[in-house]
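idk why but the lab printer keeps eating my pages so im just putting this in chat instead. protein + alpha-L-sorbopyranose:
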Amino acid sequence: MVGYKFMGKAHSHAYRDVSFYFDNQVEPVLQAICGRDQAAVKEAAEKMGWLSYETDWRALIARDDIDLIDIVTPNSSHAEIAIAAAEAGKHVFCEKPLAMTLEQAKRMLAAVEKNNVLHMINHNYRFAPAVQFAKNLINSGRLGRIYHIRATYLQDWIMDPQFPLVWRLSKEACGSGAHGDLAAHSIDLARFLVGEFNEVSGLMETFIKERPLVEGSSGLSGSASSSKTGPVHVDDASLFLARFENGAIGTFEATRFAGGNRNGNRFEINGEKGSVRWDMEKMNELDVYFHDDEVNVQGFRTISCTEEGHPFAAAYWPAGHIIGYEHTFINLVVELVKGLEKGESPAPNFVDGMKNQAVLEAVERSASLKRWVAISEIES
Ligand code: SOE
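predcted complex ->
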């Protein structure tokens, strides 16, 4: 794995715990973790159970005891590492968003396909049992024709103007702010549950345009420098409208300035026969509404997706015990491991990552040109 901080911890935990809950043929081995800071990556290896560590990702990729490279670095290094790993014959698992641009995403997809290696992208929220159950309801026709998706991803961790310019706020490191970090997840959920995007109309805003520079930091925290400040070139909030190829329409909002919302990844989907509603902050629950209920008992009701018939749930605890954020990564790793067994790239993979990147880029172009942008305009 290349990287070892927040996502490094979530991925490492998933690799170590997947066999505790699921019977797997392929057992993940935490062979080597990589980071530039030798002391820090050595400590991470010891703490998270990696057998060895490297300080140069090229040395990691050159090792013949490595089958898969997991990329949990800032967005700006995804393409270089993924392409080199594919060319070295390694399977590739990459954090979202796939890349900085659609052009990079296309090159990453071409590299994994040309080298015939497996590929996957970490859109972990698909793997919450309640989201999988929503997918089953939609696929079974229980909601009928889909009219709307209303998706928000609301956080509030950078509302303090003194919060420093960490890499998640750096255009050079990330390409965008809340847009690529949060809207990417909502776009993936919309593609998973509703369908492919046709055209978008967006707007983006940066509320705090100058922040203290940072010395040592991860993507979510940092010790600000005393006096120096720097300009912020990424969005603090990104909103857009969407039309889907199947006629559905959508509204999307991603922001890091929605005070009181810590990880408010939410959606509501309305169909001709019913609706579903999900909130990551109550991730085990799915609110459902069915139009064919008797009128006097119609209304949203809450299903606790912890039982048989709720995907992945039965592997954890019986009788309504709930699971957490980290289990969405375990469930994704179950699919990754199955893919390795079958020799097939499970969804979501680099095709999904590339399509996601096209929507991200279409919204950015729409916001700058102040007009609707068709996805086909970006992909051509
Ligand atoms: C920060 O906004 C972040 O860590 C995202 O980068 C992750 O993808 C999301 O799962 C939680 O919030």
